[in-house]
Amino acid sequence: MLRLTLFCILLASVQVLAAESISSSVTLERGPVNSVLVEQDGKRLAVYGASSEVTPKYELLLLTHHRRDVLCQARTAITAGASAVAPEAERELIEKPTEYWNAFTANRFHDYAQQSTKVLSHPLEIDRWVKEGNAVEWHGLLFDVVETPGYTRGAVSYIATIDDRRMAFTGDLIYGDGQLLDLYSFQDEIPEANIRGYHGYGSRLAQLVTSLRKIADAKPDLIVPARGPIIEQPQVAIEKLITRVQALYRNYLSTNALHWYFKEERMRMCGERVLGPEADIELMPYSLHEKTPDWVFEHATSRLLISDDGHGFLLDCGYQRVIDAVKTLMTNGLVKQVDGIFVTHYHDDHTDMVQAAAEEFDCPVYATTEYTDILENPAAYHMPAMTSNAIKNIKSLPSGETMKWQEFELTFEFFPGQTHYHGALLARRQDERPIFFIGDAFAPSGIDDYCVLNRNLVHKEGGFRLCFQKLRQIDEPFWLVNEHIPYVFEFSDDEMDYLELRYEQRIEILQELFPWDAPNYGIDEQWAVFYPYGAKTTSGESLDLEVRITNHSPTQRTFVIEPRLPEGITLIECQAEITLTPGQSGVLPMKLDVKAIPGNYVITSDVVTDGMAFGEWVESLVTVE
């Protein structure tokens, strides 16, 4: 009872206790998802979802997009008899989520599409699917349908004149006075530049700008979003948001590692999509880069350090051809044996064959403590470009640990650059310039932060800010190695100043862009996450799960969860609340009783804290065998 009471108290903290009258016919109830009630001729229409009434009776329900954290309030109205209208472009995700989850469960590794998985666990019954140019007529009112992709690929908005006021119901297209709920939802492919979703930082910001201008052209008197306050000055808020996202994207391009990989023409194509034709685009010139020293063997995304007496130390192994190349060196007498493998990060092109290499060369595998678990238990995570091949018995080292190997001094570092779960290896050799092997964190044109879902956190002691600190702490000239680049390179003091300045400016933009008290909430989808993400069990067994939460806020917060369980799975026990200090992470464990028939199941949980409430925010995929 205490757990439920606290949950309700926190939920109430993000709700307005009394409904807000927009006009004589329209009422708004603010909450985790807004509920808009329109009354005509004694009938009721809702936008987004049901109100908090116990037995709502709606004739019609208008939905703007497929996300389950919004649709969680729609099911109540539909169950009570409302006819529902939803976007045609997102029909598959609303009507057939079971097919989505079965496919995703089978194919969730090696994911380069990078789309949100906040998809319904069960289908909704929709009566009409709509697209651009359609209109919904209801008791003398006309709701024009406008396709407004951005936050999701196929979202729509509804525009209607009610009580002489032109109103736009825009879903999650815009929040408040020119803000967005998050950035990671805008990750997507950029086909015209031949860039897949993994590298598509803020891709759908281009669609967002177009959609916002469509709404502006409709000249609404107010915008009623799915979440957040009514927007009383739509034109002002829209221009603020466009200005902010364009500033963000311009900043991103200025330090973008993809400039090295994909070159200037493709980067300008990316920029003009968001910034407009012939837009002024700043790209960092390439830093100094030279041929790699002979004692470093390069192959694919791996490097092999070779000692004077022919011993080898391997960095990463994503391909069988790397193993074959090292064996050829051994056959030719250039390498006697491999003494160890260091893994820089979990991405499949660096890890798919690490376990095979460890067995082939009978050597240990090293990583730092911060990301050992994701290497040993990849199925427990959902991250971009994941390998499915677990690495056994990793020698987990604290960051900063130093090891003498042959004539080398090796220093193992936690280095959360390209992704949060990332390390680096500083190799010092007598009479040689040290080389810092940084995985995929930097390139001669800047930083590898093109995939927001990699968790590029921006607090002072994390992410690239920590990486900058570690580069600054090396008090001698040194080279950098990114294993995708067949050179060593360095940043001058001026280049380091430039990178850090642009990054600090980025953080300032993000702080203005999001409504949260810390920008990490807007770029880190996994501030709350189920662990394990994927689990297998059998009917009749119990299953242990936990929700892991990071308090990114500058103040202490209490978080409360409410699990949502499918038929056949029940809760035995659950720690439902936790109080965390700023920057602290914590765990909320639960034990489940599984009586379900064989199949794939999606377990979700609400997550609530003061001023923030998200329905069915996190999920775990449970396969009952």
Description:
This protein is α+β, with helices and mostly antiparallel strands. It folds into three domains: 19-243, Metallo-beta-lactamase, Chain A; 289-490, Ribonuclease Z/Hydroxyacylglutathione hydrolase-like (Metallo-beta-lactamase, Chain A), CATH 3.60.15.10; 522-624, Immunoglobulin-like, CATH 2.60.40. Helices cover 25% and strands 29% of the residues. The protein has a seven-stranded mixed beta sheet with strand order 1-2-3-4-5-6-7. A six-stranded mixed beta sheet has the order 14-15-16-17-18-19. Strand 21 and strand 22 form a beta hairpin. The longest helix is centred in the middle third of the chain and has 21 residues, at 234-254.
Just give the CATH class of the largest domain: Alpha Beta
The profile of the biggest β sheet is:
7 strands, mixed
- State the fourth-level CATH superfamily of the largest domain: Ribonuclease Z/Hydroxyacylglutathione hydrolase-like
Physical arrangement of strands within the biggest beta sheet: 1-2-3-4-5-6-7
Using the alpha-carbon principal axes, give the shape: globular
Distance between the termini: 34 Å
* Coarse structural class: alpha+beta
Query: What fold name goes in the CATH topology slot of the largest domain?
Result: Metallo-beta-lactamase, Chain A
The helicity comes to 25-40%
Figure out the total of helices.
15
Low-confidence stretches: 1-17
Describe the oligomeric state of these chains in a short phrase: single chain
CATH architecture assignment of the largest domain: 4-Layer Sandwich
